[in-house]
Design a protein that fits this description.
Blueprint (H helix, E strand, L loop, with lengths): L19 E6 L10 H9 L2 E4 L14 E4 L13 H13 L3 E6 L9 H11 L3 E4 L4 H9 L12 E5 L13 H5 L4 E5 L5 H10 L7 E6 L7 E6 L3 H8 L5 E5 L6 H4 L11 E4 L7 H10 L2 E4 L3 E4 L5 H7 L7 E4 L2 H13 L11 E4 L2 H9 L13 H9 L6 E7 L5 H8 L3 E12 L5 H8 L5 E4 L2 H14 L7 E4 L2 H9 L4 E4 L5 H12 L1
This protein binds S-adenosyl-L-homocysteine (SAH).
S-adenosyl-L-homocysteine binds next to helix 4 and strand 10.
């Protein structure tokens, strides 16, 4: 049944077609650990019902309406109980929708996915089950604990630590687990760790057995505590570990000493505010995750097309009249060349022009259009670009694809060098009206470690938005991308802690790593 395309359904009207429900495993937390099939399902969904363990960053992959079905804690959000979820899945599919039921880890590992699948099967609703990486394999891998090992463990048991102790016939057989020659992994057991350990010990498990608790596995807050089984509850309490956590018992835990890797990342556990426009944050977000940090989106400007395209269009019609086109941002490249395509023309119009890019990111954006920059200055600043161009543009017709706002240094230098300069606004950079509520809340409670300031206008924007939100940046350190940016930050009343040597986001992140090292 699973992959059969939806057929005509028995919905109320009788004419619409039954949709399909995908029970998708979201993986353990790191958004990179979603399967390709899961991604496809999210991309085609009309509705996503996701549970409390799912990383909300995954919802960036879908255009669908997304609703959270359960919440830990009581913050006034509606909580659907399991029967309601089951009824909803059937009703939405019968109404012709493609529904993704997104669950943390694997949908069938302590996830009630089987119950939902059974309801769908009984209702005749087509469904597919997309497995996910379950917390045990993922958290163990990120903690450097192999669940099986040629010399240390030949079997694995995934056990619920949540069993109601008052149950008459307990399903978890602690006598069997105590004698189990392999790795034990308890899900949902943090609250009852004392009870679990004492039951294992009284059933005869060696108190010296290596053991660990992995908290928030695969997430930037991952923390692992290791101890002997007997000492584990105390060690976990002392470290203040929080849910979601797994308890792991077995010889394999000792491998961690040699192969722990994720927790060695230089920015693990730190949060870093990304001030770029949201549409351009993906690259920086990815690099932060690689460094172990948690990215926090806090844009100061948004990029929009010019209010009217008529000026751009008329310049595009005369592109062959320019000797040089100068690009000082990725947005400038996209603004000019994107529009060139949209009006029905193509890159052949550039065949007479030489191209200058202010830095590697801009040059890369050109390369994305299969264009090679003829000139990239050694230092990625307007002054350096103006200087590098200075000797070559006397009498030349130069087009600068620029933002609606920016510094005047480049046009001054080019005109002084004798260029015949035309400035063309190809995109607007507009101030955002406020930061997301989650970001403000973090700042208000001092839970943001760093903010990256990647241009003078962004530095001013951070000062403005902090003022609007009525928060101070006292417990947050600021990293600046360049001296010009640092100066703008200071003028706006901000204190810069570190400055990049290389004026790129990579340089900025390297400065943070050095400061943390
Ligand atoms: N279906 C999920 C498990 C749901 S039960 C899966 O396959 O992973 C919820 C339990 O999973 C939590 O109590 C915790 O024990 C474990 N868990 C989920 N995500 C985790 C994470 N990122 N780190 C550690 N444990 C996690």
């Amino acid at each position: 049944m699973a992959s059969v395309p939806p057929t005509s359904g028995d919905s109320a009207g009788g004419s619409s077609r039954t949709g399909c429900v995908y029970l998708v495993g979201a993986g353990p937390g790191d958004p990179g650990l979603l399967t390709l099939r899961g991604l496809e399902c999210l991309q085609r969904a009309d509705l996503v019902l996701y549970d409390g363990l799912v990383n909300p960053l995954l919802l960036e992959h879908t255009q669908a309406t997304a609703e959270r079905t359960r919440r830990r804690g009581d913050d006034g959000h509606k909580v659907l109980d399991q029967d309601e979820i089951n009824r909803r899945l059937v009703a939405e599919a019968r109404a012709g929708r493609t529904v993704v039921r997104l669950k943390g880890g694997d949908p069938l590992v302590f996830g009630r996915g089987a119950e939902e699948a059974r309801v769908l099967a009984e209702a005749g609703v087509p469904f597919e089950i997309v497995p996910g990486i379950t917390a045990a394999t993922a958290a163990a891998a990120y903690a450097g604990i192999p669940m099986t090992h040629r010399d240390k463990a030949s079997a694995v048991a995934l056990v619920t630590g949540h069993e109601d102790p008052s149950k008459e016939n307990p399903a978890v057989d602690y006598d069997a687990l105590a004698g189990f020659a392999g790795t034990l992994v308890f899900y949902m057991g943090l609250d009852q760790i004392g009870e679990i350990v004492s039951r294992l010990l009284s059933a005869g498990r060696d108190p010296a057995s290596p053991a660990a608790v992995i908290s928030q596995g695969t997430l930037p807050g991952q923390q692992t505590v290791t101890a002997s089984l007997a000492e584990l509850p105390g060690a976990v309490e002392a470290a203040g570990l929080v849910a979601p956590s797994l308890i792991v018992v077995g010889e394999c835990v000792t491998e961690r000493e040699a192969i722990s890797w994720f927790e060695q990342r230089p920015l693990l556990g730190l949060s870093v505010g990304v001030t770029r426009p949201v549409t351009q944050a993906a690259g920086v977000v990815g690099r932060l995750v690689q460094l172990g940090a948690e990215p926090v989106l806090m844009p100061t400007i948004e990029i929009r097309p010019p209010a009217s395209s008529s000026e751009v269009d008329s310049v595009l019609d005369q592109l062959d009249g320019f000797d040089w086109i100068v690009f000082t941002s990725v947005n400038g490249v996209a603004g000019l060349l994107g529009r060139l395509w949209d009006i029905g023309a193509d890159l052949r119009r550039l065949s007479n022009c030489r191209l200058a890019a202010i830095g590697p990111a801009t040059a890369e954006a050109l390369a994305g259009y299969r264009l090679r920059a003829d000139l990239v200055p050694e230092s990625y600043r307007a002054e350096a670009l103006g200087e590098a161009l200075g000797s070559r543009v006397e009498g030349a017709r130069v087009l600068w694809a620029r933002a609606s706002r920016g510094r005047d240094v480049l046009p001054e230098m080019l005109e002084k060098a004798g260029a015949n300069l035309q400035q063309l606004v190809v995109y607007r950079n507009e101030d955002v009206e406020g930061w997301p509520a989650g970001t403000i809340e973090r700042l208000a409670t001092g839970r943001l470690d760093w903010i990256g300031l990647s241009s003078p206008s962004i530095a001013r924007g951070v000062a403005r938005l902090a003022g609007l939100a009525d928060v101070t940046l006292d417990s947050t350190r600021l990293a600046s991308i360049s001296p010009v940016t640092s100066q703008a930050a200071r003028e706006a009343g901000l204190e810069v802690s570190v400055e990049a040597e290389n004026y790129t986001w990579d340089g900025l992140l390297a400065a943070i790593v050095a400061a943390e090292g």
